[in-house]
């Protein structure tokens, strides 16, 4: 399921009301009966509703389902995407939709723009898209929503990411700026950087290594463990030290004073230090970075790396700053966290590292390097569009005509 925003500008406010009615009805109906859609939409007169229903079905935002007892409709992923986009457009978070720059296992990453052309990232969570194992329907969280579970769970994933990104950002962690969350989507600032995985050489690996270890420790000092801290979830931004800016240095001279700043972009497995498996997650994060630096940069640190006991000590000295607690207070409750964790386990969502094989140590380094450079070439062409502002400007212009104007056509 890919986002195709083209049709959104042809939708009327009536269409959106009917779409929202199907969404509302699907909270307690597997298949939403047509009379209920009509009632929930609040629109008088059946012909308008019927026309909207057939419009929406034609572009696959809703799907007709013939039930044993009655006919009705079900909201499709596209329908949920349009509802979220419409909300972002109304709140002026998004003006136009650009290129998709990434398809994650459980999400789509899309460049969007504001009215002034400045760019942002929209992440659409699509939980369970790839690894669908049958979810046990006797699970508490699915009792009343077996068919709508993807919708609810994807929303929980977006809520979780937004809540953590906000808390982390507020406490000075290097993460994108969270801008808005609606349904299963979040909008955040665009980071002009490459994932660590695509960085072939680092001038001072020891320095970057210790930055990353410090980040793991710093997270724990605030009560959190990332749980999936690896080369896919860390972007590396190049920043010129302030003292060398605007000094008329040549590019080569500037290169010598460039700092690599890691930015953490994805935290689906983030848990509290009080989680029953906290120590295992903490050690896994540390190991993952150690192993990656050894394999990719041939760097092995003298020290063993931080331990969970050390992290606990730091936490004890930092009372009152528990981000795990702050996140709960912000509306992403412990119950939601548990539901999401259980669901992710059930549908077989794995941490990035495991799923993409970063955990697999192989003695035959040459072979691995070869393999890696092949996929890097592939990935960098995809990523290039994000980095190259020229391309991006072009793609946004092309989007002007594609602006989301569904709700303004009323
Ligand atoms: N704020 C951002 N700015 C720039 N690029 C981003 C941003 N967020 C995500 N990306 C790009 O999109 C890719 C996937 O993002 P992310 O890891 O959040 O999604 P995911 O669903 O977990 O994907 P995956 O499972 O493939 O890691 C990243 O590797 C990065 O290249």
């Amino acid at each position: 399921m890919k986002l195709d925003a083209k049709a959104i500008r042809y939708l009327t406010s009536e269409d959106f009301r009917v779409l929202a009615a199907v969404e509302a009805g699907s909270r307690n109906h597997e298949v939403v009966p047509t009379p209920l859609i009509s009632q929930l939409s609040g629109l008088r007169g059946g012909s308008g509703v019927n026309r909207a229903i057939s419009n929406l079905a034609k572009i696959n935002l809703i799907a007709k389902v013939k039930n044993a007892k009655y006919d009705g409709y079900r909201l499709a992923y596209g329908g949920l995407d349009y509802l979220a986009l419409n909300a972002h457009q109304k709140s002026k978070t998004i003006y136009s939709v650009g290129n998709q720059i990434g398809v994650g296992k459980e999400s789509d990453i899309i460049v969007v723009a504001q009215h002034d052309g400045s760019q942002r990232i929209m992440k659409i969570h699509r939980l369970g898209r790839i690894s669908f194992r049958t979810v046990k329907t006797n699970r508490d969280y699915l009792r009343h929503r077996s068919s709508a579970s993807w919708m609810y769970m994807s929303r929980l994933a977006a809520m979780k990411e937004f809540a953590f990104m906000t808390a982390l950002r507020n406490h000075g962690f290097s993460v994108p700026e969270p801008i808005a969350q609606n349904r299963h989507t979040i909008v955040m600032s665009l980071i002009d950087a490459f994932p660590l995985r695509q960085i072939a050489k680092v001038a001072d690996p020891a320095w970057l290594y210790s930055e990353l270890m410090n980040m793991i420790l710093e997270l724990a000092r605030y009560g959190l463990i990332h749980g999936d801290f690896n080369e896919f979830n860390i972007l590396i931004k190049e920043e010129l030290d302030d003292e060398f800016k605007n000094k008329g240095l040549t590019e080569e001279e500037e290169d010598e004073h460039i700092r690599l700043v890691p930015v953490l972009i994805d935290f689906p497995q983030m848990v509290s230090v009080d989680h029953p498996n906290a120590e295992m997650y903490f050690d896994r994060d540390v190991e993952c970075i150690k192993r990656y630096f050894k394999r990719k940069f041939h760097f092995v640190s003298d020290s063993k790396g931080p331990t969970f006991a050390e992290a606990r000590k730091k936490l004890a000295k930092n009372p009152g700053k528990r981000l795990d607690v702050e996140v709960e207070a912000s509306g992403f409750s412990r119950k939601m966290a548990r539901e999401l964790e259980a669901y992710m386990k059930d549908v077989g969502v794995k941490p990035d590292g495991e799923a993409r094989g970063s955990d697999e140590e192989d003695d035959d380094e040459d072979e691995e390097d070869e393999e890696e450079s092949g996929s890097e070439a592939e990935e960098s062409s995809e990523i290039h569009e994000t980095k190259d502002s020229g391309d991006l400007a072009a793609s946004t212009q092309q989007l002007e005509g594609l602006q989301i104007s569904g709700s303004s056509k009323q």
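The radius of gyration is 23 Å. The mean pLDDT is 82.
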